[in-house]
């Protein structure tokens, strides 16, 4: 009988996130840490880390009525196309 190897499963890296939300969270975390870190090569840079103020991006202030309107219009178009294809399948099945 073959022996099973006991490999340690690594958690997914930040370079390959499992979802878009993890990618966005990693990007926000990198931006915050990059803005708060002082440059190392500069003489006279203070050793105390400065607090970066949170910056609100334009994406966080979305107009949800417009966004949901687009989603509903896409769903309506998808419903029309799928109904037309279903009717086409029925007609082809009846006549062939």
Secondary structure layout:
Elements: H1 20-36, H2 64-95
Task: Please supply descriptive tags for the structure shown above.
0% strand, 51% helix, 2 helices, mainly alpha, 96 residues
Quick take:
With 96 residues, the protein is mainly alpha-helical.
Description:
By secondary structure, the chain is an all-alpha fold. It has a domain at 64-96. It is 51% helix and 0% strand. The protein has two helices and no strands. It has helices at residues 20-36, 64-95.
Order of helices and strands: HH
Helical run tally: 2
Q: Strand count, sense and closure of the main sheet? A: none
Poorly predicted sequence stretches spanning 5 or more consecutive residues: none
Using DSSP, what is the number of strands? 0
Q: Tell me the span between the first and last alpha carbons.
A: 54 Å
Q: What overall geometry do the principal axes of the alpha carbons give?
A: flat
- Which percent range fits the helix content? 40-55%
Strand content: under 5%
Provide the structure class.
mainly alpha
**How would you state the average pLDDT, rounded?**
75
Taking all Cα atoms into account, the compactness measure Rg is: 26 Å
């Amino acid at each position: 009988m073959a022996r099973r190897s006991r490999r340690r499963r690594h958690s997914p890296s930040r370079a390959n996130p499992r979802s878009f939300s993890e990618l966005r969270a990693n990007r926000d975390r990198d931006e915050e840490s990059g803005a708060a870190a002082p440059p190392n090569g500069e003489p006279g840079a203070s050793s105390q880390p400065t607090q970066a103020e949170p910056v609100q991006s334009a994406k966080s202030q979305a107009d949800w009525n417009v966004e949901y309107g687009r989603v509903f219009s896409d769903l309506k178009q998808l419903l029309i196309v799928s109904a037309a294809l279903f009717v086409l399948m029925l007609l082809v099945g009846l006549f062939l």
